[in-house]
Amino acid sequence: MTGPCPACDRFDALTRALRADDLDAAIELGMLHCDGSGACRDRDEAAVVFAARDERLRALAARERYRARAARLARWAEAAAARRSPVAVPDITGPGDAPPDPGLPPAAAAALARALARARSQ
């Protein structure tokens, strides 16, 4: 047999808290960690404690799934907004053209400058 569960020694206080509908006190007394591995499993109120524990664990899991979904939707919205944002294109028509975008790699900037020079000479 394994050792008592964390809530066995406080089982009476735990059941009183549940009867008083004080979930905060029940959680502080170890309701979420009460696994029924000890002597509390054989008590009459064990079914009430286990049902309350299971219900609360399901609610906590649902809250975590909701938060994960909200974060995922926020990431998708940011990615969609980034895809829709306009790309800045330098104006290359006219005599005082701005130099190629400094964000370009050097080889691409050189190729763009050569193409602009060819286009102007024609």
How would you describe this protein?
By secondary structure, the protein is mainly α. It has two domains: 8-84; 88-122, no CATH class. It contains four helices and no strands. The mean pLDDT is 80.
Number of strands: 0
In terms of structural class, how would the helical and strand content be classed?
mainly alpha
CA-CA gap between termini: 92 Å
Instruction: Return Rg in Å.
Output: 33 Å
Poorly predicted runs are none
Strand content: under 5%
The main β sheet shows up as: none
Taken in chain order, the helices and strands follow as HHHH
Helix content: 55-70%
Mean pLDDT: 80
Count of runs of 4 or more consecutive helical residues? 4
Quaternary assembly: single chain
Shape summary = rod-shaped
How many domain units? 2
Task: For this entry, give a set of tags.
mainly alpha, 2 domains
Layout of SSEs?
Layout: H1 11-19, H2 23-28, H3 46-84, H4 106-121
Briefly characterize the structure.
This protein has 122 residues and is mostly helical. It is 57% helix and 0% strand. The relative contact order is 0.08.
